Here is the input.
Amino acid sequence: MKKTGILLLCLLMPFGSAFAEQGKPLSVELLWQLKRIGSPVVSPSGEHIIAPVTEYDLKEDKGSTQLWRFDGEGKNNRAITVKGLKVSEPVFSPDGKTLAFVSERNEDDAGQIYLLPMDGPGEAQRLTDIPTGVNGIKWVGKHLYFISNVFPNQTWDEMKTQLKADEDNKVSARQWNALPYAQFDHWLDERRQAHVFMIPASGGEVEAVTQALGHELPRSSQSSSSYDISPNEGLIAFSTYGSDNRIDPKLDIFLATIGSGKAENITPENQAADADPSFSPNGKTLAFTRQKIPGFYADTSRLMLLDIDSRKLNTLTPEWDRSVSQFNWTPDSKGFYATIEDAATNRIYHIDAKNGKVKAITEATDFGQPAIGKDGELIATNESFLHPARLVSINPRNGKTVRLENFNDDILKDVDLGTYESVTYKGYQNQDIQMWVHYPPGFDRSKKYPLFMLVHGGPHNAITDGFHYRWNAQTFASWGYVTAWPNFHGSSGFGQAFADAINPDWKNKSLEDVLKAADWFKQQSWIDSDRMVAGGASYGGYLTSIILGQPHPFKALLIHAAVYDMYSQMASDFAVHSTRFGNYWDNPELYKAISPHYFAANFNTPTLVSHGQLDYRVPVGQGFELFRTLQTRNVESRMIYFPDENHWVMKPNNSIYWYNQVKDWMAHYAKPGAQ
Here is the structure.
């Protein structure tokens, strides 16, 4: 067995002296008691650190978010917004004296911009009254900019009337004449368009920015990373579709002088996605990300730099086989800090804007998007399998971190956590595959334990060293299972060739990787090969459905939100990667080879199926098709249907129910605990 350098000291001993050796397990109920810290923002002077903190109420069955202010030393942290509201997207004014954020309060029909002074006590004041709501806010100069999904030919008053008429309409039918028609868990209204608007920070008239340019933002998804405003408020750069091809849309970067009525596509030559525009603080350069493979979301994102005056375009990281995401300019415009997925971790790197040289700042664990604080320090979240996100300051010179809060310590102090490690085994064609292995609390290598093999989704989303709420490996391990997350072929963060290895054959390489992971465990003296179970969601559910129809060692399976029939997956909001697979009528043999339903004659393993009605990524019919097939074949099976969940199980009580159903199902076929 090859162990990687990621194996941390905390993996070999109890998790901190405050944690009891024999305590309570990391139960699903406890997961929902934890405070969840979001991405921080820092005022220009570095004096103020703000981050959203979300808590959940099981009785109300929902969460609420407050903005917290942190002093940088962890001594005088306090909430600055009231409890029980929805609050998001904090941004500072250029002078750092005022905080803007989006909130939906009792009198609001949709999220609005609120302003809160930072120099003393005071109530937040609403700035906007936009009937279609706001998101993606930025504060540049004297204006706040935002996105709203509007009826393009109506006034604000007319939109308010239109929304009320839609609400009161007795006809529930929806109509589309073109794609897209849905996004993840909600229907799209093709009468509406997403546009950028601006409003003076002192209040006043709202002005259209992109609507006057004749371009809308992508209807299916927009955020603050969809556009940027130059520091002098003269230019807007935004990412949207460069053609009318709604089947295989391509994102381009457009650049325009605000108020000019004309936008220029500055990336027409690239046939893949260009996105995430960001002006340098000095306004001389526009950075954005670029992919090269059309229609493939997991292609490497490279950092591009455009000189505004000369229009010279430069690829900053042409040879680096990692994707750049969540990047922030340094205040001197000489570089970037970026969160990079790297070999099953998310690390913060510095990238030199002149020569593209990259330097890892943080250790090999999971860090979130960094904000730049006082004296150049970084403020970010840090998490691992053993603890939820914490707010930390990071010394960019040596990577040393200092924790800025103690949220969740009281909840976790009596929890008995297991240990984990990263191992490398031989998978498809004897290639190295990284895998996370979690051991139950009190693990004893002289005894034998059951295995719970977890199959991740995506498929191009690696499992990194982070705290996962929906599928928490430590929670599964607390039931008495050795729990494994293999990062099989197709996983991100291991280079483009590895990610692209399963296209167009979704099935064989990743299947062999998972089965060889099971073989690796069979060779371990502490695994009971007669008590092995497996499960996954989304692509992980797809691959588990493939396993269901192949020879395998598992006594029971869990399949959530799975692609079961590749043909009917055409109904998805995302469909299938037609640019990678081809359409099923053009490439029927491939679809036949990789669709789980073609192997139904071999189904005989007890299987728990779960799915949500609001799942438009993998429509709920996929789950019912699988369940009916299992029942028709007289295979022990159970269907869990959530009428109010999407691709994920998000509501607290539904999540608790799902975890407990999984626990009971697996225990019935593979008794937990050491023997």
The radius of gyration is 25 Å. The longest helix spans residues 652-669. Residues 331-407 form one domain. Residues 1-21 have pLDDT under 50 and may be disordered.
